[in-house]
Every structure is written in structure tokens, then in C-alpha cells.
Amino acid sequence: MIDLRLTLISGLIATTLLGGLTQAHATGDTLDDDGGTASTGPIRLGTRSATNSDEPSRASNRDEATRLSGRDEVSSSGRTRSGLPPKPTASEFETYASQLAGTPIERLGSDLMLSASSAGNLEANRQVPPDYVVGLGDEIQLTLWGSVDADLRLTVDRSGRITIPRVGPVVVAGVRQAELNDLLTRRIGQVFKNFQLSAGLGRLRGIRFYVTGFVAKPGAYTVSSLATVMTGLAQSGGPSAAGSFRNIELRRNGAVVGRFDLYNLLINGDKTGDLPLQADDVLHIGPVGAQVAVIGSVNKPAIVELKPSDSIDDALAYVGGLSTVADATRLTIERLSDRNDRRVAELELPRDGSLKVGNGDVLRAFNGVTAALPQAKQYKRIRVEGEVARPGDYVLPPTNTLADAVQAAGGFTSQAFVFGTEFTRESVRKVQEVQYDRALRDLETDFTRNTSSQKVTTAENAQALTQSQINTSRLIERLRSIRPTGRIVLDMSVSASSLPSLPIEDGDRLYIPPRPNTVGIFGSVFNGGSYLLKSEDSVDDVLQLAGGPTRGADTESIFVIHANGSVLSARSTGGGWLSFGSPMRNAKALPGDTVFVPEEMNKTSFMQEAKDWTQILYQFGLGAAALKTIKN
């Protein structure tokens, strides 16, 4: 861009006198310093920043920018490296409200207090508003094109001026940013013609302000000139536990120029009180006002600070009102003044919403859906599946029974096996789970106690004990994977054609299976599986269809699970080691039965038993005569 073929010696001399700036030939007419007509060509004013002798160095400016962004380390002020003051200690009232609610309860607005670094970054990225007033230390970015070519970064000196090459000083302090272009256009137009310019603000000055009163970290702070009251609060960590969120004063030159209520911003979105800060301003935070805890079924449980005229309705509005599932007809209030007499009183909504609340009161809203209604008042949802005319979900009146549920589903089909009805209930399942888990814990405790009390005399016994422990642990883990279903066994005959008159509950489920014609035989039999059932067959007869029990079967522990969920065992039929024949010979097999023959678990060889008895008798000093006596 620089034309080295300079033809005007005077132009070179003039350029040199102006600090080494180069003037090039241009096609447009300009006015030289003497007011005469200069040669054609654009004038290059330069790209380096024009500074004054009293302007701070670039290095110091970078340090200042780093400090303003919140990355400074100020140990004397107690701030951390990130600029975030320590979180204020919870007040006694916050601790008390948290204990009542069972969850941490904080003051409304405390989560708006950003760290100092975050607040600084937000201001650094904020657009300069048109009404921003240029001040000392601000940087002006000036770009010219046309007959003049310039890209300048000029800092406002202590006299409020910037110095433009070949133009001279221009006073810009006190000028609004929206008026900056017009001011510089008029001033540069006194020297050059046929040009355009764009003027904006670059790095802004820092201002120092003070935070006093009930604040987490009082003292002096330096922020960007774009900072507002909210920025100042964030820099100082916000009000302390004893400080107010609603009584914050902005003082300038000894007079109060603004009052800031954080709730106006938080609740109403009103930012009018968030005024810009100026140098030497004072933010004064007053003492906290009356506080009320609002807990329970509200949208944002919190401790709110009230004005003297605020009511219960206002307190609820501050926390977003009652939640969707709240009981909108009532809430309770615990008044500080009544805690030695009547601690808690119940209020009716909306009638008592206009009542005033006092300092230290606790309002609690209730959940309207967790408390179960009496069964006599509940409409029940029940699912009916299987062999009915219209399977599906039904909502029935409070007093209906299982028979009414079947009737609502259109009644049984011709294939329905009423005896095998599977009836499950959610409330029963929950009780079963608790009892089942307790039984498993007891089993595990007994197993551990027995294992620790056993004495091992030989390596063979130690190996057997270890294997027994492994097997028992596997059994317990398998039992844990099985969960109760909540099934209720209905006491009916195999030929029943209707269900018992049992009242239904919400969430009940009925499944009516088709009538089966087989029985299942599993366990220690020669050929387990399902077999066709004859009407006169006994359990012993169907066992013979599977080949009967094997040699290792425990015939004394055979059991049958009927289709209705009831169980019949060989021990309950009177069978045992003193009885003759099969223990299940008189038990009638029913459609849908499942017969299980367990394996004998406590089997030992003859040699092992002989060895054990010999050791026992030897230890007691018994000889061959004793052995003969025992044998006889």
C-alpha cells in the first residue's frame, strides 16, 4: 500500500515530523498541514496505537484485565484464586428449617450469587450500551477509510482526550457512545475530506467501589465500568446470613441514589433497580428482615424474606406456589410465638391466605396424593385377563368384589378354570418382599453362625465344609434373585364356578386360565415332564407315569403345587418312615398340578458313617463290647 516512489520531498518531511507516519499518493484531494492542496493518494495514518506519555503500559493493562476478570489472587481479602468468596455459613433458622423438611433449605436468591470470576467474564462479554459514557482509561477503536487509511487504538488520557495523528487532541470524556461517531467525524473532517469512519470502544476502564454492611466479604473491589449492582454483589459474595436480599442501597457522594430489591429481579424480572456502578460508589447491605420458611409440597422450598405487609399468599408466591400434587385446601403454620403453647396450627386455603406471617414462622404444604384414602371411599382400578368375555382394565366402585370385577369383564368363558385363578395384589407383594428379605437375612445369619461353630479335624472334613459353604452361598444368591409376586391363594374347590366375595383393592390383577388336562412332574424322577391326567388318578399314579422316584429321591419330601397356589406335601399327608407304601398314594391329582420330587441332600456312605461312629465311641472309651451291644 505504501508507494515508495515518493515525489514530494515536503510530504516526506511532514510525515517524518509527525512521528514517522507515512503519507502516500492518493487520487482524492486532501488538505495538508499548511492548508494547501496536497498531492493525490490516500493518507496512511498508521496501525499502531497512539498513546500519551501518562498512559499505562501494555503490560500493566494486561495485568489489569487479568485482575478484572476475577483471576487475581488477593489473599488479604480472603478470596480464593478463582475470586469466589467462601460460602456463608448457614444460619440457625436455615438449619432448623432443613431439619423439619428433611432436605437442605436455603434462602431464596442465594443461588443467584455467581463467583467473582463468572461475574467478571459476563461483564467482559457484555455489549456496550449506546448510553455508555466514555471515561478516563477507556480505549477507543477508530477505523478510517477512503482518502484516509487508519486503524487506531487510542486510550483516553487523564485530560479526557485522545490524540489522532495529523488531527490532534479530541476531548471524548463525558460523551455517550452513541454520539462518538458524530463527534470524531466533525473533528477529523476539519483536516480531511472524502472519508468514512467507525468508532467503538475496546478495552474498558476499571472502577473501584466499596461494599459495606452485612456482606460475606466487605471491602473495596475493582470491576469493569459496565458493572452493575448485581455484579458488585456477586464480587463480594452477596449478603451474609445476617444480610438482606431486599434492602440494598447504592450510595454515591454520600447520598442514596438507588435501592435494589433482589426479589423484584428474581420473581418479577424487574431489572430497573440494577443500576450501573460508578467509581467510588458504595453498596450498603442492610440487616435481614423477617424470614419465613416455606417447605413441603411447594415448587421451590426455601426461606423467604418478607416485607412488613406480606401475607401467607405472598410467601407462597415467592416460592412459586403450591406444587401440582399439593393439597390446595390447607397448610400448617408453626409460629415462633406459640412454640411453648400450641406449636402447630392448621390453616384453611384460600380463606386464611391473607393472614400475616411473623419472623421465624414455618409454613408447610401437604402432598394430596401420597396419603391413601379409606378403602370404602376409593374407586379401584383392576385388571381382568384370561378366560373372560372382555379382558382389560376396569375402574369399579369402592364396595365391589372379585365377582363384580369378573361380571364387569363379561363373565367367564366356557373354557375358564376358576380353581386355577391367579389373583395378585400390590399391597400383599410389598409385605411379602419385606418378609422374604427378612427370612433370607435370618437364613444367612444362621448359616454364618453354624459355619463358624463347626470344628474341622481332617483335611477331608475341611474340604467338605468349604464345598458346603460354597453351595449354601450359591443357594442364597439364587433365592435372592426370586422375588415375591403378591399372589393370594383363593380357597376354592376344584369344581368352583365363581370367585369368593373378596373386596378388591386398587391395582389388583385377576388371571383366569383355561382348564388344563395335564400335570407336571419334575425333580428326581426317571422322565420328568407333563402328562395327561385321568380323573381318578392319584399323585402316586402320575408319578408312575414318569417312571417313579429314582434311587436318590427323597420320597418323604415330595410336594404338589395345585393350580390355585396351595401346596400339598408328603409330610402333611401323614406319610413318613414308619408308614407303609407311597406317602402320596391317597392324594388325588388335580388338573394343573405340579409334582416335585426332591433329591436326598444328607447322604453319607456306610464307610463314612462307620468311621464317624468308631471315632465317637473311641473318644468315649467304649470297646468291642459296647459295639456289640449297640449292634444288638
UniProtKB/TrEMBL annotation:
Residues 28-90 are annotated as: Disordered. Residues 1-26 form the signal peptide. Residues 55-74 have a biased composition (Basic and acidic residues). Gene3D superfamilies: Outer membrane lipoprotein wza domain like, wza like domain. Residues 127-198 form the Polysaccharide export protein N-terminal domain. It holds the Pfam family Poly_export. Keywords: Signal. It comes from the Bacteria. InterPro entries: Poly_export, Poly_export_N, Soluble_ligand-bd. Residues 209-258, 292-336, 382-416, 519-567 form the Soluble ligand binding domain. PANTHER family: POLYSACCHARIDE EXPORT PROTEIN GFCE-RELATED (PTHR33619). This is SLBB domain-containing protein.
